[in-house]
Amino acid sequence: MVCIPFPMMRLGVLVFLPSHSTADYVTPVEQQFTVDFNASDKNAVLNVPVGLTPLRSKRPRSDEYLNQEAENAKTLSLRQRVMSPPCFRNPFVNSDVFPERARQGCVSAFGSSSRYREEFHQIKEIGRGDFSYVYEVLKRLDGCLYAVKHSNRRLLNEGDRRKALREVQALSCLGYHENVVRYFSSWFENDFLYIQMELCETNLRDESLAWTFTEKKLTEAMFQLLNALKHLHSHGLAHLDVKPDNIYIRKGVYKIGDFGLACRIDGAISIEDGDSRYLPMELINDDHSHLDKADMFSLGATFYELARRSPLPASGSQYQAIRQGKLALLPGFSLVFQSLIKSLMHPAAKNRPSAAQALKNALFKKSSSKVL
């Protein structure tokens, strides 16, 4: 029983009198309602049992918890940050848009989850080379198919990264052209480079194994690829790896791809040799004064191989004869076609036509309107 005084009015004065009920000796004192009464204190306070207050839901803190040192706010914020990859200068762009400080990398608030897995569904492998794999993928957001190339080993130092980025930087500098494999985006992930590109059905190498090319078909392909080289050379770039494997086909349109060896025509970037079967003699002799004309030789060698229906030699006497301008006749092909091939593969680089000059050849004037 709770013992609470109750008030009485006597001559207009509020007086508290003790209750006549029996005192409660069972309920603990801290759980009883009581009034701390003092006749001189006008602010009497009602004591409420602990069980009916928020204190009941609180657990006492242990000494171990209370003795922990407070962590620095800066430490807590850095825990959720990762370093962004550095900004690399594009050697194909004359102006340097990034200051030196930006190339060193900066702190980013984003996590390190896999962009490749989040944005794409991998369907199948469609190609591989010495340095990369290529997969057909479905982009989850837009539902379209793309090709994603990624390096087959980790790029742990800046030299490896710069070398791998050459293709990305060349493609981004070129912009869109119908006869160049389209570039969409690229990124580093766990020290691997990923490049999202246009998906093509096949390439000239695989196409040549399935079909025998006619002069009309090869003329159409050559016209489109000369347009691609004209675009490259007008932007100051040389491909340096033109061959059937790197010429792709999408819906009947021929496109140059694989810019891993691309360089500037002025020779400002280190040059690496491509496939020896398609290289002109001047590159073999380390003469880099006519890099655009080296592409013209490689294009001529590509169509010479397709027209003769047998692989080009990689060495030997026939290899040397081809670089001396001694080409075998091509049965079933017109003299105009063979003459253009011969001029593209002229031993002297300065005597080869440019892409713009070759497009004016009589071969294309007498061809179908589709080629024109």
Automatic annotation (TrEMBL):
SMART domains per the UniProt record, alphabetical: S_TKc
One term under GO cellular component: cytoplasm
Pfam families assigned: Pkinase
Keyword field contains Transferase: yes
Keywords, comma-separated and alphabetical: ATP-binding, Kinase, Nucleotide-binding, Serine/threonine-protein kinase, Signal, Transferase
GO molecular function, one term: protein serine/threonine kinase activity
Highest rank taxon of the organism: Eukaryota
Residues at which ATP binds: K149
Ranges for domain Protein kinase: 120-364
PROSITE patterns: PROTEIN_KINASE_ATP, PROTEIN_KINASE_DOM, PROTEIN_KINASE_ST
Record's signal peptide: 1-23
Family: Belongs to the protein kinase superfamily. Ser/Thr protein kinase family. GCN2 subfamily.
The name this protein goes by in its record: Uncharacterized protein WEE1-2
Taxonomic path: Eukaryota, Viridiplantae, Streptophyta, Embryophyta, Tracheophyta
Gene: WEE1-2
